[in-house]
Amino acid sequence: MTTTPPRFAVNETDFHDCVRFRSEAQSLWGVDCLQFSSSRHFFTILIMSISSVQLLKKFTQLIHLRLKFFLNWINYMDVALYALSLLVLIDFESDEHDTDIRQVWQWECGAFAVLLSWFSLLLYIRRSKWLGIFVFMVGEVGVTFLRFAAIFVLFLLAFSLSFYVLLQNQIAFNTPAWACVQTFTMMLGELNYSDIFLSHFTSSIYSKIVQYQEATVFVFIVFCIVMNLLLTNLLVGLAVDDISAVHRQASLRRIALEVEGILDINYAAPAFLRRRWMVRDRMVMPSNKNEESHYFWSWFNREENLKPKVINEALTRDESDLEKMSSEIKDLKMDLNKIMCTLSNLSKGKIAATN
């Protein structure tokens, strides 16, 4: 998609004999006929094969997981990615095979496929030990924003419709939809104060004049206070709180994700393969004397958590201060129970003696 010109840059009159570009696009793509390398078809077939195999794998998971397949939102994203990739690469017209110029709707599908491909890469990165925590942070902040989105949308609609009523003669606010987009960008810091609110001092063009100056300035000041100061700082505070919670649970979340991935792969396989290849138990000898003699093999096929040294340290490790304190508390409770039993026996004996 990044090395192929879009259809709007192509001169349609010279499209059949030679792929030439419009004069506006010649600074980017050149003035000569567009030449495509033969390797482009190889990579096209390769990507189509990979996408087809991945779709077949998803179909197999659907057969085995059934309803659980639809409960995982990642499956929707993967299926959309592979389906869009196929739609972009399939030649629906005869001239597409020779020129590789895609249709308008194919080009839009390609843009969404590129976006989903990088999101898919982020989902794989979150299994990483060092980078996964940052992906979790983005996810937690995104969930918090979705919870807050209802309040945010109300404020956005309120100010965008007010700006539309007051500034609909300007291009940025000439429709309610574009007014919402412009108001959202103004919230992010791109206020364009001089271009929007002071342009009537330097120009008498109809699309530059501010018709209702006092009301517009008042709404703009309220917008800066509510959206840029209050809501933005509120979102930052919520994000910081979520990030601190992710830091405390990062290792547990990563381990849970690894276990979940292993279980998904395990139960996605057919039952006869699970019965044949699943390892149900494994014996590990902590006092292995042959580790030093097979150092190269142990390094090549090592498992850090199953080394004899690690196992011995786990079996003979010293108690931490917290564990020592908890054991002392248990001993004190046992001694206290013994004293209470002794006192109760003495009191019963004294009562019997008096009788």
How would you portray this structure in words?
There is one protein chain. The chain has 355 residues and is an all-alpha fold. It folds into 2 domains: 117 residues, no CATH class; 137 residues. It is built from 14 helices and no strands. α2 packs antiparallel against α4. The N and C termini lie far apart (102 Å). 10% of the residues are buried.
Topology (SSEs and partners):
Blueprint: H1 26-29, H2 39-65, H3 67-70, H4 73-89, H5 94-99, H6 104-125, H7 132-167, H8 176-187, H9 193-197, H10 213-268, H11 271-277, H12 295-300, H13 308-315, H14 321-354
Give the fraction of residues assigned to helices. 55-70%
Average residue-wise pLDDT: 78
Label the structural class: mainly alpha
How many H/I helices? 14
Task: Report the principal-axis shape.
Answer: flat
Element-level helix/strand string? HHHHHHHHHHHHHH
Beta-strand content estimate: under 5%
Tell me the radius of gyration.
Answer: 34 Å
Number of strands: 0
Which consecutive residue ranges, at least 5 long each, have pLDDT under 50? none
* Largest pleated sheet: none
The end-to-end distance, rounded to whole angstroms, is 102 Å
How many separate domains?
2
